[in-house]
Write a structure and sequence with these properties.
InterPro entries: Cys-tRNA/MSH_ligase, Rossmann-like_a/b/a_fold, tRNA-synt_1_cat_dom, tRNAsynth_Ia_anticodon-bd. GO terms for molecular function: ATP binding; cysteine-tRNA ligase activity; metal ion binding. Residues 2-159 form the tRNA synthetases class I catalytic domain. This is Cysteine-tRNA ligase-like protein. With 328 residues, the chain is mostly helical. 56% of the residues lie in helices and 9% in strands. The chain has 3 domains: 7-104, Rossmann fold (3-Layer(aba) Sandwich); 126-286, Isoleucyl-tRNA Synthetase, Domain 1, CATH 1.10.730; 296-327. It has a 3-stranded mixed β-sheet, with no helix packed on it. A two-stranded antiparallel ribbon has the order 1-2. A two-stranded parallel ribbon has the order 3-4. β5 (107-109) and β6 form a beta hairpin. α1 (52-64) packs across α2 (78-92) and α11 runs antiparallel to α12 (317-327). The protein starts with 30 loop residues before the first strand and ends with a helix. The relative contact order is 0.07.
Length: 328
């Protein structure tokens, strides 16, 4: 089964005393007897409620039938919950089949599982009051879904910077291409071939994305590999377009930038790292979250920047460093 455990290796009564009413020590309850103060329903076996495992089989059968592609759940549910779910679903329908089981690791706090009982958890709403939702998403997919992920402000800051860089790169690309796209619309010229660097960039991005996503959703590799190379290409090409060059070379660079940017957007869309808002609007949201974390207004930041500039002019480098530390 899922966990690889064998029935003969489990010791009956080791953790919980064996109920004498069971036909076999490994049997689990499909129907729990009613307890005072708990919801209960009448049944041929007396008042009670569904067992923990049968709930999931019943919901699956009701909404997606006993056959479906992907079943998720926490890694702690593999045994006994999901194995029991498989057993009872097979008993109800011999055609029962789930193609893929995806068991996720937990987000931890100080390497302990977050839980209400320990009081060491944060809600998504609490986190997104200070960090952009896309930064949180980047943080979560920055670890493999089956691995535990320790909640870390430093890592959230890193993810926030990473997503800000993505959107700043896309915004700069849009600005760099705007005048050329307007010209192309008016002249309706045939699109030139893209350059070799763009071809290689697109090839690496597509191969890595398809390979790693097909290999158990290796999102951390995608975030740090060919996607970063593609973003660097977009960044450098956007800057290069501002320089003087031959018209033919310029048009080829424009087309190359368009094609690479399109492939980058495809990857980001699948990863859920795009937004329905404009790039500029998302960047503004990131700035507002950063100001909120720092407890500053935009005017106060501008004043500090000016204070640092004056300190550098006056060669008061200690003061300059002090202000810079405060800004970062």
């Amino acid at each position: 089964m899922l966990s690889g455990q064998r029935v003969e290796h489990n010791k009956a009564g080791k953790r919980v005393a064996v109920d004498s009413r069971k036909r076999h020590p490994a049997d689990f309850a499909l129907w729990k007897a009613a307890k005072p103060g708990e919801p209960s329903w009448d049944s041929p076996w007396g008042p009670g409620r569904p067992g923990w495992h049968i709930e999931c089989s019943a919901m699956s059968a009701c909404y997606v039938s006993h056959k479906f592609d992907i079943h998720g759940g926490g890694i702690d549910l593999i045994f006994p919950h999901h194995e029991n779910e498989i057993a009872q679903s097979w008993a109800a329908d011999r055609e029962s089949h789930i193609s893929y089981w995806l068991h996720n690791g937990h987000v931890t706090n100080n390497n302990e599982k977050m839980s209400k009982s320990l009081g060491n958890f944060f809600t998504i709403r609490q986190i997104t009051e200070r960090y952009h939702p896309l930064a949180l998403r980047h943080f979560l997919i920055g670890a493999h879904y089956r691995s535990p992920l320790n909640y870390s402000i430093a890592k959230l800051e890193t993810s926030s910077d990473a997503v800000y860089y993505i959107f700043q790169t896309l915004e700069d690309c849009k600005d760099a291409l705007s005048s050329f796209l307007q010209e192309d619309t008016e002249k309706k010229e045939k699109a030139p071939k893209i350059n070799d660097a763009a071809k290689e960039c697109i090839k690496k991005l597509n191969v890595e994305f398809q390979t790693k996503m097909s290999d158990d959703l290796q999102t951390p590799v995608i975030l740090t590999g060919a996607l970063q190379e593609a973003l660097k290409f977009v960044n450098s090409s956007s800057k290069m377009l501002k320089k003087k060059m031959q018209k033919k070379t310029q048009l080829q660079l424009v087309q190359s930038l368009l094609e690479v940017e399109k492939e980058v957007r495809k990857v980001l869309n699948v990863l859920g790292l795009l937004s329905s808002l404009s790039y500029a609007e998302v960047l503004q949201q990131f700035k507002e979250k950063a100001l909120k974390r720092a407890g500053l207004t935009e005017d106060e930041v501008l004043n500090l920047i000016e204070e640092r500039r004056q300190a550098r002019i006056n060669k008061d480098f200690a003061k300059s460093d002090e202000v810079r530390t405060g800004l970062t």
